[in-house]
Amino acid sequence: LDTKLNLHWGNDHRARAKDEDPFRELVTREAYLQSSFGNTSFRLGYQILPWGVSEGGAITDEVSPRNSAEFFFVSLEESRVGQPMLTMDHFGDSGQWTAFFVPRPGYNKYPDRGSEYDIPGAFDRNAPDDDWDNAGTWEFGARWKRTFGKSDISLMAARLIDNDYLVRQQRFRMYGLTANVGIDNLLLRAEVALKQPRAFLARSANSSDLRIVESDQFDSSFGFDYSPGGRALTYSAEVVWSRLLDWNSDIATRERDEYSLIGSVSNRFFNDDLTLSWLTIYTRPYTSFQHRFLSSYLIDDNSTVY
Protein backbone atom coordinates (compact mmCIF):
# COMPACT_ATOMS: atom_id res chain seq x y z
CA LEU A 1 0.00 0.00 0.00
CA ASP A 2 1.44 3.37 -1.08
CA THR A 3 -0.84 6.22 -0.11
CA LYS A 4 -0.53 9.70 1.36
CA LEU A 5 -2.79 12.50 2.55
CA ASN A 6 -1.81 16.00 1.42
CA LEU A 7 -3.16 19.06 3.22
CA HIS A 8 -3.05 22.37 1.31
CA TRP A 9 -3.59 25.37 3.59
CA GLY A 10 -6.17 27.99 2.68
CA ASN A 11 -3.71 30.38 1.01
CA ASP A 12 -2.46 27.71 -1.39
CA HIS A 13 -3.59 28.15 -5.01
CA ARG A 14 -5.21 24.70 -5.15
CA ALA A 15 -7.09 25.31 -1.88
CA ARG A 16 -8.40 28.62 -3.23
CA ALA A 17 -9.44 26.93 -6.49
CA LYS A 18 -11.36 24.29 -4.52
CA ASP A 19 -12.61 26.86 -1.97
CA GLU A 20 -11.55 24.54 0.87
CA ASP A 21 -9.42 25.34 3.94
CA PRO A 22 -7.53 23.12 4.19
CA PHE A 23 -7.87 21.29 0.88
CA ARG A 24 -7.48 17.57 1.60
CA GLU A 25 -6.11 15.38 -1.16
CA LEU A 26 -5.76 11.62 -0.77
CA VAL A 27 -3.26 10.19 -3.27
CA THR A 28 -3.09 6.40 -3.56
CA ARG A 29 -0.47 5.40 -6.11
CA GLU A 30 -0.52 1.65 -5.43
CA ALA A 31 -2.63 -0.82 -3.46
CA TYR A 32 -2.19 -4.41 -4.60
CA LEU A 33 -1.70 -8.02 -3.56
CA GLN A 34 1.24 -10.06 -4.83
CA SER A 35 2.02 -13.76 -4.77
CA SER A 36 4.81 -15.84 -6.28
CA PHE A 37 4.87 -19.38 -7.65
CA GLY A 38 8.38 -20.56 -8.36
CA ASN A 39 9.97 -18.11 -10.79
CA THR A 40 6.67 -16.38 -11.58
CA SER A 41 4.91 -13.63 -9.60
CA PHE A 42 1.50 -12.00 -10.00
CA ARG A 43 0.23 -8.62 -8.78
CA LEU A 44 -3.44 -7.66 -8.76
CA GLY A 45 -4.81 -4.28 -7.74
CA TYR A 46 -4.09 -0.58 -8.14
CA GLN A 47 -0.61 -0.22 -9.67
CA ILE A 48 1.83 1.89 -11.66
CA LEU A 49 4.07 0.39 -14.34
CA PRO A 50 7.21 2.43 -15.11
CA TRP A 51 8.88 1.49 -18.38
CA GLY A 52 11.92 2.96 -20.08
CA VAL A 53 15.26 4.52 -19.14
CA SER A 54 14.85 8.13 -20.29
CA GLU A 55 14.94 10.86 -17.64
CA GLY A 56 13.64 13.59 -19.94
CA GLY A 57 10.82 12.11 -22.00
CA ALA A 58 8.04 9.53 -22.05
CA ILE A 59 9.51 7.32 -24.78
CA THR A 60 8.17 3.89 -23.78
CA ASP A 61 6.84 5.05 -20.39
CA GLU A 62 3.26 5.30 -21.74
CA VAL A 63 1.38 2.76 -19.61
CA SER A 64 0.74 4.82 -16.46
CA PRO A 65 -1.04 8.19 -16.75
CA ARG A 66 0.60 11.33 -15.33
CA ASN A 67 -0.30 13.85 -12.66
CA SER A 68 0.24 17.34 -14.09
CA ALA A 69 -1.78 19.25 -11.46
CA GLU A 70 1.32 21.30 -10.60
CA PHE A 71 3.47 20.51 -13.63
CA PHE A 72 7.22 20.31 -12.86
CA PHE A 73 6.67 20.61 -9.10
CA VAL A 74 5.55 16.96 -9.27
CA SER A 75 8.65 14.80 -9.71
CA LEU A 76 8.75 12.11 -12.39
CA GLU A 77 8.75 9.38 -9.74
CA GLU A 78 5.66 10.85 -8.07
CA SER A 79 3.83 11.87 -11.25
CA ARG A 80 2.65 8.45 -12.36
CA VAL A 81 -1.03 7.74 -11.60
CA GLY A 82 -2.11 4.27 -10.49
CA GLN A 83 -4.85 2.28 -12.23
CA PRO A 84 -6.45 -1.18 -11.84
CA MET A 85 -4.05 -3.72 -13.31
CA LEU A 86 -2.99 -7.36 -13.40
CA THR A 87 0.73 -7.91 -13.96
CA MET A 88 2.88 -11.00 -14.29
CA ASP A 89 6.67 -11.32 -14.04
CA HIS A 90 8.53 -14.48 -15.01
CA PHE A 91 12.26 -14.89 -14.37
CA GLY A 92 13.82 -17.55 -16.57
CA ASP A 93 17.06 -18.47 -18.29
CA SER A 94 16.02 -16.44 -21.36
CA GLY A 95 15.47 -13.28 -19.30
CA GLN A 96 12.66 -11.51 -17.47
CA TRP A 97 9.20 -11.56 -19.05
CA THR A 98 6.56 -9.03 -17.95
CA ALA A 99 2.93 -8.87 -19.08
CA PHE A 100 0.13 -6.55 -17.99
CA PHE A 101 -3.63 -6.19 -18.45
CA VAL A 102 -5.64 -3.05 -17.59
CA PRO A 103 -9.43 -3.55 -17.58
CA ARG A 104 -10.23 0.12 -16.85
CA PRO A 105 -7.51 2.53 -18.02
CA GLY A 106 -6.87 5.70 -16.04
CA TYR A 107 -6.19 9.15 -17.48
CA ASN A 108 -3.99 12.16 -16.89
CA LYS A 109 -4.71 14.51 -13.99
CA TYR A 110 -4.69 18.12 -15.17
CA PRO A 111 -4.52 21.42 -13.22
CA ASP A 112 -7.59 22.24 -11.14
CA ARG A 113 -9.98 24.79 -12.60
CA GLY A 114 -8.99 28.21 -11.27
CA SER A 115 -5.57 27.14 -9.98
CA GLU A 116 -2.32 28.90 -10.89
CA TYR A 117 -1.57 26.45 -13.72
CA ASP A 118 -5.06 26.38 -15.21
CA ILE A 119 -5.32 27.52 -18.83
CA PRO A 120 -9.01 28.29 -19.50
CA GLY A 121 -10.35 26.05 -22.23
CA ALA A 122 -7.16 24.01 -22.56
CA PHE A 123 -8.15 21.08 -20.35
CA ASP A 124 -11.29 18.99 -20.56
CA ARG A 125 -11.98 18.02 -16.95
CA ASN A 126 -15.04 15.85 -17.53
CA ALA A 127 -14.39 12.18 -16.85
CA PRO A 128 -14.43 10.16 -20.09
CA ASP A 129 -17.76 8.48 -20.77
CA ASP A 130 -16.34 5.09 -21.74
CA ASP A 131 -18.21 1.81 -21.84
CA TRP A 132 -15.96 -0.17 -19.52
CA ASP A 133 -17.65 -3.44 -20.53
CA ASN A 134 -16.42 -2.96 -24.08
CA ALA A 135 -13.20 -4.89 -24.81
CA GLY A 136 -12.07 -1.91 -26.88
CA THR A 137 -11.16 -0.05 -23.69
CA TRP A 138 -8.74 -2.69 -22.40
CA GLU A 139 -4.98 -2.13 -22.36
CA PHE A 140 -2.41 -4.91 -22.51
CA GLY A 141 1.22 -5.47 -23.37
CA ALA A 142 4.43 -7.38 -22.69
CA ARG A 143 8.16 -6.77 -22.19
CA TRP A 144 11.23 -8.98 -22.44
CA LYS A 145 14.40 -7.92 -20.60
CA ARG A 146 17.79 -9.62 -20.60
CA THR A 147 20.84 -8.66 -18.52
CA PHE A 148 24.41 -9.17 -19.72
CA GLY A 149 26.89 -8.35 -16.95
CA LYS A 150 26.60 -4.57 -16.39
CA SER A 151 24.36 -4.11 -19.45
CA ASP A 152 20.76 -4.94 -20.34
CA ILE A 153 18.32 -4.76 -23.24
CA SER A 154 14.51 -4.70 -23.33
CA LEU A 155 11.93 -5.22 -26.09
CA MET A 156 8.29 -4.30 -25.53
CA ALA A 157 4.95 -4.09 -27.29
CA ALA A 158 1.63 -2.76 -26.02
CA ARG A 159 -1.90 -1.86 -27.09
CA LEU A 160 -2.90 1.34 -25.29
CA ILE A 161 -5.52 4.07 -25.05
CA ASP A 162 -4.32 7.67 -25.11
CA ASN A 163 -4.15 9.09 -21.57
CA ASP A 164 -5.24 12.53 -22.79
CA TYR A 165 -8.89 13.42 -22.15
CA LEU A 166 -9.43 15.08 -25.50
CA VAL A 167 -8.38 12.04 -27.51
CA ARG A 168 -9.57 9.53 -24.92
CA GLN A 169 -11.15 7.15 -27.41
CA GLN A 170 -8.02 6.88 -29.53
CA ARG A 171 -6.11 3.61 -29.39
CA PHE A 172 -2.51 3.15 -30.49
CA ARG A 173 0.14 0.46 -30.70
CA MET A 174 3.58 0.95 -29.18
CA TYR A 175 6.75 -0.96 -30.04
CA GLY A 176 9.85 -0.08 -28.07
CA LEU A 177 13.46 -0.92 -27.30
CA THR A 178 15.67 0.18 -24.40
CA ALA A 179 19.32 -0.51 -23.67
CA ASN A 180 21.81 0.23 -20.89
CA VAL A 181 25.49 -0.39 -21.54
CA GLY A 182 27.90 -0.18 -18.60
CA ILE A 183 31.57 0.52 -19.31
CA ASP A 184 33.63 0.99 -16.13
CA ASN A 185 32.25 4.21 -14.55
CA LEU A 186 30.19 5.14 -17.63
CA LEU A 187 26.59 4.08 -18.30
CA LEU A 188 25.21 4.64 -21.81
CA ARG A 189 21.41 4.76 -22.19
CA ALA A 190 19.28 4.48 -25.35
CA GLU A 191 15.54 4.21 -25.90
CA VAL A 192 13.37 4.25 -29.04
CA ALA A 193 9.64 3.74 -29.63
CA LEU A 194 7.24 3.66 -32.56
CA LYS A 195 3.65 4.65 -31.71
CA GLN A 196 0.99 4.17 -34.34
CA PRO A 197 -1.20 6.00 -34.72
CA ARG A 198 -1.11 8.90 -32.21
CA ALA A 199 -4.00 11.38 -32.15
CA PHE A 200 -3.62 15.18 -32.27
CA LEU A 201 -5.95 18.15 -32.35
CA ALA A 202 -5.96 19.96 -35.70
CA ARG A 203 -7.58 23.10 -37.06
CA SER A 204 -10.61 22.70 -39.28
CA ALA A 205 -10.32 24.26 -42.70
CA ASN A 206 -13.45 26.40 -42.59
CA SER A 207 -14.01 27.02 -38.89
CA SER A 208 -12.29 27.58 -35.57
CA ASP A 209 -13.33 24.13 -34.33
CA LEU A 210 -10.70 21.51 -33.67
CA ARG A 211 -10.76 18.01 -35.10
CA ILE A 212 -8.70 14.90 -34.43
CA VAL A 213 -6.07 13.75 -36.91
CA GLU A 214 -3.71 10.79 -36.65
CA SER A 215 0.00 10.42 -37.28
CA ASP A 216 2.56 7.74 -36.52
CA GLN A 217 5.14 9.02 -34.03
CA PHE A 218 8.79 8.07 -33.51
CA ASP A 219 10.37 8.94 -30.15
CA SER A 220 13.98 8.43 -29.08
CA SER A 221 16.45 9.34 -26.37
CA PHE A 222 20.20 8.87 -25.96
CA GLY A 223 22.14 9.70 -22.82
CA PHE A 224 24.86 8.80 -20.36
CA ASP A 225 25.67 8.80 -16.63
CA TYR A 226 29.30 9.16 -15.52
CA SER A 227 30.68 8.82 -11.99
CA PRO A 228 34.42 9.39 -11.38
CA GLY A 229 35.97 6.47 -9.55
CA GLY A 230 35.78 6.58 -5.77
CA ARG A 231 33.47 9.60 -5.65
CA ALA A 232 29.71 10.08 -5.15
CA LEU A 233 29.65 12.68 -7.96
CA THR A 234 27.48 11.86 -11.00
CA TYR A 235 27.23 13.72 -14.32
CA SER A 236 24.31 12.99 -16.65
CA ALA A 237 23.28 14.23 -20.09
CA GLU A 238 20.56 13.21 -22.53
CA VAL A 239 19.03 14.26 -25.85
CA VAL A 240 15.37 13.51 -26.63
CA TRP A 241 13.90 13.69 -30.16
CA SER A 242 10.30 13.19 -31.23
CA ARG A 243 9.07 13.23 -34.86
CA LEU A 244 5.61 12.89 -36.44
CA LEU A 245 6.01 10.61 -39.45
CA ASP A 246 2.72 11.66 -41.11
CA TRP A 247 3.00 15.40 -40.59
CA ASN A 248 -0.07 17.58 -41.12
CA SER A 249 0.40 21.35 -41.04
CA ASP A 250 -3.09 21.74 -39.51
CA ILE A 251 -1.95 20.08 -36.26
CA ALA A 252 -2.36 22.70 -33.54
CA THR A 253 -0.81 21.04 -30.50
CA ARG A 254 2.78 20.42 -31.60
CA GLU A 255 5.35 20.70 -34.41
CA ARG A 256 6.69 17.94 -36.60
CA ASP A 257 9.95 17.70 -34.61
CA GLU A 258 10.48 18.38 -30.92
CA TYR A 259 13.82 18.29 -29.09
CA SER A 260 15.00 18.39 -25.51
CA LEU A 261 18.50 18.56 -24.05
CA ILE A 262 18.87 17.48 -20.42
CA GLY A 263 21.89 17.90 -18.19
CA SER A 264 22.30 17.19 -14.49
CA VAL A 265 24.94 16.86 -11.80
CA SER A 266 24.55 15.40 -8.31
CA ASN A 267 26.89 14.86 -5.38
CA ARG A 268 26.72 13.49 -1.84
CA PHE A 269 28.48 14.92 1.22
CA PHE A 270 28.91 14.21 4.94
CA ASN A 271 29.12 10.41 4.65
CA ASP A 272 26.40 10.46 1.97
CA ASP A 273 23.85 12.05 4.34
CA LEU A 274 23.54 15.26 2.27
CA THR A 275 22.58 15.01 -1.42
CA LEU A 276 22.61 18.02 -3.77
CA SER A 277 21.58 17.91 -7.44
CA TRP A 278 21.02 20.35 -10.29
CA LEU A 279 18.92 19.66 -13.41
CA THR A 280 18.55 21.76 -16.57
CA ILE A 281 16.16 21.02 -19.48
CA TYR A 282 16.27 22.96 -22.77
CA THR A 283 13.33 22.40 -25.15
CA ARG A 284 12.68 23.35 -28.79
CA PRO A 285 10.94 24.46 -31.00
CA TYR A 286 8.84 26.22 -28.34
CA THR A 287 11.99 27.42 -26.60
CA SER A 288 12.03 26.98 -22.84
CA PHE A 289 14.55 26.47 -20.07
CA GLN A 290 13.78 24.66 -16.86
CA HIS A 291 16.24 24.66 -13.97
CA ARG A 292 15.70 22.66 -10.80
CA PHE A 293 17.76 22.37 -7.64
CA LEU A 294 17.08 19.51 -5.21
CA SER A 295 18.56 18.74 -1.82
CA SER A 296 17.94 16.14 0.87
CA TYR A 297 19.51 15.44 4.25
CA LEU A 298 19.31 12.12 6.07
CA ILE A 299 18.88 12.95 9.77
CA ASP A 300 18.78 9.31 10.82
CA ASP A 301 17.55 5.99 9.47
CA ASN A 302 13.93 7.08 9.93
CA SER A 303 13.92 10.80 9.04
CA THR A 304 14.86 12.86 6.00
CA VAL A 305 14.37 16.54 5.16
CA TYR A 306 14.46 17.82 1.61
Give structural notes.
By secondary structure, the protein is mainly β. The chain has two helices and 15 strands. It has helices at residues 13-18, 76-79, and strands at residues 2-8, 23-37, 40-47, 83-92, 95-102, 139-148, 151-161, 171-183, 186-203, 210-226, 234-244, 257-269, 274-284, 288-300, 303-305. Strands 1-2-3-4-5-6-7-8-9-10-11-12-13-14-15 form a 15-stranded antiparallel beta sheet. Strand 9 and strand 10 form a beta hairpin. The longest helix has 6 residues, at 13-18. The protein is globular and about 65 Å long. The relative contact order is 0.11. The model has no long low-confidence stretch (mean pLDDT 89).
The total of helices stands at: 2
How large a portion of the residues is in β-strands, by DSSP E?
over 45%
User: How would you characterize the largest beta sheet?
Assistant: 15 strands, antiparallel
**What order do the SSEs take from the amino end to the carboxyl end, as H and E?**
EHEEHEEEEEEEEEEEE
Q: Percent helix among the residues?
A: under 10%
- Report the count of strand segments: 15
Mean pLDDT over all positions: 89
Globally, the shape reads globular
Order of strands in the sheet with most strands:
1-2-3-4-5-6-7-8-9-10-11-12-13-14-15
Pick out the low-confidence regions: none
Structural class by sheet pairing and helices: mainly beta
Q: Note the gap between the termini.
A: 23 Å
- Rg for CA atoms: 21 Å
